[in-house]
Specification:
The protein is of the alpha/beta class and 353 residues long. The protein has 2 domains: 3-137 and 318-346, Nucleotidyltransferase, domain 5; 154-316, ATPase, nucleotide binding domain (Nucleotidyltransferase, domain 5, 2-Layer Sandwich), CATH 3.30.420.40. Helices cover 43% and strands 22% of the residues. The chain has 13 helices and 13 strands. The chain has helices at 60-63, 65-86, 106-119, 130-136, 180-196, 204-212, 220-229, 231-235, 238-246, 250-273, 288-292, 294-306, 319-332, and strands at residues 3-6, 9-12, 22-29, 34-41, 47-55, 93-100, 122-128, 144-149, 153-158, 164-168, 282-286, 313-316, 344-346. Strands 5-4-3-6-7-13 form a 6-stranded mixed beta sheet, sandwiched between helices. Strands 10-9-8-11-12 form a 5-stranded mixed beta sheet, with helices on both faces. The radius of gyration is 21 Å and the shape is globular.
Length: 353
């Protein structure tokens, strides 16, 4: 199989049976950023990345409809610019997969589908929640659980009967426990406690001040309104926690272990809802925090095994590879009927294998 590369991660592309000589647009959008990738699928299993771009967040629930569609439009326009100039006689891509956070409700997916169809970008397309796409990348049968930990955190799963369960994903103000935002917030809390003498000394204090370009801990106070409005700014502190924990800093280790427990709780609750309380399910993981920190992935897996809820396998899934599999299943072969209520599909043109 071909190894795809995107955002610093290698993964194995799924078999491309039924897809050849086709362009696929993949949009992966969340509360922090939107990534758009255009790939060309050739004969056999040859996949070429033609272009990729990143724009602002496009979760319609967290950033609002106008901001979401503006960032989606910008991502699509930029990634297709070169393709359209070279393919003036055939400006549409064959397939598009829009994996967008905040699209758990069909009414939201339908509204986005109406907007996207008006752009005239793709012959056929699907819209589904971003966390759901990860499950598509971990199982040929379209079953399993996804755990996402980036700026936010959530778990989502689907079983063979089409039953869907979700845990977490309530946003940074109400939830997002174990996420990069949560870790950054806990690091800030620890910093002021250390400065007060309420907690033992920790490297979190000087490292965070250095990262933010501050000379004194009191300088954090004027930044508080920005922290409250920009969760991504707080989430950027999570790597400092992981760095300090690897050096044996007890405060950072405590935050890391608590984050691990919260993420395990998300998976365990989703598994219980779907009848997998004793494990055995495929587990897909994604999001910047889990993608970039192997140690945390290992801690999550070890804890799931320790509490008697071990996954059959845990896989770091690249949304691009997952989207290619999803195109085959949902748009080319019209498979996975138990997913019918999860995504919105539009476009009827059929292509020959």
């Amino acid at each position: 199989m071909l190894s795809l590369w995107l955002g610093g991660n290698f993964c194995e592309a799924p078999a491309l049976r039924g897809i050849s000589d086709a362009q696929i647009l993949v949009v992966d959008a969340g509360a922090t950023k939107t990534s758009a990738v255009l790939v060309q699928v050739g004969s056999g299993e040859n996949v070429e990345v033609i272009a990729s771009v990143r724009t602002g967040p496009a979760n319609p629930v967290s950033v609002g409809w106008e901001t979401a569609v503006q960032n989606l439009w910008q991502a699509c326009e930029e990634v297709l610019r070169g393709f359209r100039s070279e393919q003036s006689s055939k400006p549409k891509v064959h397939y598009a997969v829009l994996a967008i956070a905040g699209t758990g409700k069909e009414e939201t997916r339908s509204r986005l589908a109406q907007w996207f169809a008006g752009l005239g970008i793709a012959e056929s397309f699907c819209i589904l929640p971003d966390v759901a796409l990860l499950v598509a990348g971990v199982s040929n049968e379209g079953v399993g659980i996804a755990l996402v930990a980036g700026t936010g955190s959530a778990s989502w799963g689907i079983n063979s009967t089409g039953q869907v369960a979700r845990t977490g994903g309530w946003g940074f103000f109400l939830d997002d426990l174990g996420s990069a935002y949560w870790m950054g917030r806990k690091a800030l809390e620890a910093t002021v406690r250390v400065a007060d003498g309420r907690d033992p000394e920790s490297q979190l204090l000087p490292r965070i001040l250095q990262h933010l370009g501050l000379g004194r801990v009191e300088d954090l106070i004027p930044l508080s309104p920005r922290f409250a409005k920009e969760p991504a700014l707080v989430a950027q502190l999570a790597p400092i926690v992981l760095e300090c924990s690897s050096e044996g800093d007890l405060t950072a280790l405590g935050i890391l272990e608590q984050a691990r427990n919260y993420l395990v709780e998300l998976v365990r609750c989703t598994a219980w809802k779907l009848g997998w309380g004793s494990g055995g399910f495929p587990l897909a993981v994604g999001g910047g925090l889990l993608e970039n920190f192997e140690k945390l992935r290992g801690m999550v897996l070890e804890r799931l095994q320790a509490i008697g809820c071990p996954p059959a396998a845990m896989t770091l899934v690249d949304p691009l590879a997952a989207a290619i599999r999803f195109v085959r299943q949902a748009l080319v072969e019209d498979g996975w009927p138990h997913w019918a209520h999860v995504y919105h599909k539009q476009g009827t043109e059929q292509r020959s294998p």
